[in-house]
Every structure is written in structure tokens, then in C-alpha cells.
Amino acid sequence: MPRLRSSSLLISQPFLGDPNFERTVVLICRHDEQDGTFGLVLNRPSSLCLGDVLELPEGTPEVLARQPLLLGGPVQPDTLHYLHQRPDIPEAVPLGQDVYWGGDFHVLVGLLLSGDMQPEAVRFYAGYSGWTAGQLATEVGENVWIVHPDAAGKVFTLDNDAFWQAILREKGGRFRALSNYPLDPRLN
């Protein structure tokens, strides 16, 4: 079984059957054998924007207020999380390949408002995906997930709509074939 760790991607099997994770790619942000796993679904858009859920400072540019809000997972959907490409944001957790998780939100907003950080360099998520200690390892052992190690750098390079299919194709071999698996094989 591939080793689970921060910066790995979890790719859902096409026949998973769980609407929360159907054709999703989850970035593991924290994995601990004792405390469990915290991750963010990377490719589940919502109909909301950042300005819809946060009271932003007066004069906030429209481009920031209209920043898309993705669904990070079914756990605590009223919490906000973010991934970005700035190593200089205090308390941000490095996940590898120029991807950082969290950090001082006021510094992040300040960088965006000043133009020192482009909106494309950050992604916002409502909620998260979580597993208790041992739960994710069990699911991986049962082939619920395909583990793609050290792939955090893909966060800002792949389109949300095609992320699941593109990452499977990139893995190649039998995974390439899975990328074309129909949503409902009974309809083929």
C-alpha cells in the first residue's frame, strides 16, 4: 500500500458511489497515525464566491470578492480553508511544490488587496474531508482511493472540471483506462 502523507493526492475510484467524493481528488494536508487525516477536495466547485460568505473590507476589488469557493469536503462546511503559493505568509504549512495550506488570513487578504499576490495564486474551500486514525488506511486498503504521492504541485496547474480525469491519465497504465469509466456503466 502506498504511504499516506501530507502532499499526497487521493483519487476516488470511479465506482465509489459516495456523492461526497464521486470523481474527486483530495489533497492530504495533514496525516497522523494517531490523530487521523485532514484533506481538501480540490475539484468540487460551489455556486458561491468568497464575497458571498465573508464580510470583506470596504473597497475590496471585485476580482477578490468573486473568487470562487470550492467545497473542501462534507466536514464542517461552515469553515474556510485555503491553499496558496506564498511561502511568506506566517503560519502557513508547506505541502511541497510551492503549495501552502492556511496561515495568517489577514496577511493573505492584505497581499491580495495590495496586488502583491494574484487571485490565481490562492484557492478557497468551504469545509474539509476528515478521517479518524486508521480509517483512511483501511479505505486505501479496500481500494476506495488511489494514492498519488507528492503531487501537491498539481493544485494550481489543472482545471477543476477535468482534474480527476487528468490526474488518472497522468498516472498512466490501468489508471488511464479508469479515467474513461462512465458515470453510470448501466447506461453503456
TrEMBL record:
PANTHER family: UNCHARACTERIZED PROTEIN YQGE (PTHR30327), UPF0301 PROTEIN YQGE (PTHR30327:SF1). InterPro entries: AlgH-like. It comes from Hymenobacter psychrotolerans DSM 18569. Pfam families: DUF179. GO terms for cellular component: cytosol. This is UPF0301 protein SAMN02746009_03981. It comes from the Bacteria. Belongs to the UPF0301 (AlgH) family. HAMAP family: UPF0301.
